[in-house]
Amino acid sequence: MQKAVFLDRDGVINDNKDPVNKPEDLKLYPWTAQAIKMFNEAGFHVYVVTNQGGIEMGYFTHEDLQGIHERMVTELSQQEVIIHGVEYCPHFKTKCQCRKPKPGMILKIAKEHKIDLNASYMVGDREMDIDAGLQAGCKTVKIGAPYKKADFQVNNLLEAANLILSHVQ
To answer: Where is the active site (predicted)?
Structure first.
């Protein structure tokens, strides 16, 4: 079975001070590529799991989001970084199993790609990210303000990478 790191997008991979509603709005943090490359080199598959309720709210379309994710993957691949997949929940008001804090996106990826959730991590900047990771059976890393349910707390994705890799080697 494969181990994985599940990453929230906004606030973890990219700056989200301003809304990211089109590809040109995406601004990756300067440490993102280095951190994900560390996961790649350590044998983790990396998946992005992101709530994108702006689709249901009408702020942007599925096509806009596809463009944003294509830009993210392309920019990272230019630095020899691999994102193994991206899952998103387009819902905001609709009841579903995919919107975090529910673990649906993580469980879907785990089933499709034979991921060992007990050997995997969920990294997010919001409590709902941590709750989804815990429900899925992952260890969790909270970026930013502490959350008592999280296994670990760090300031950014590079710190998360260093912490996770220090626990698996």
So the answer is: 8 (nucleophile), 10 (proton donor)
Domain interval for residue 14: 4-168
Q: Residue 129: which CATH number?
A: 3.40.50.1000
pTM for the model stands at 0.97
Annotated binding residue 113: no
Surface-to-core class of residue 68, CB atoms within 10 Å of its CB (0-12 exposed, 13-18 middle, 19+ buried): buried
Q: How many domains does the chain have?
A: 1
Measured CA to CA, the distance from residue 57 to residue 79 in angstroms comes to: 34
By percentage, how much of the chain surpasses pLDDT 90? 96
Query: Residue 169: what pLDDT?
Result: 58
Residue 96 annotated as binding? yes
User: Which of 98, 17, 91, 96 lies closest to 58 in space, CA to CA?
Assistant: 91
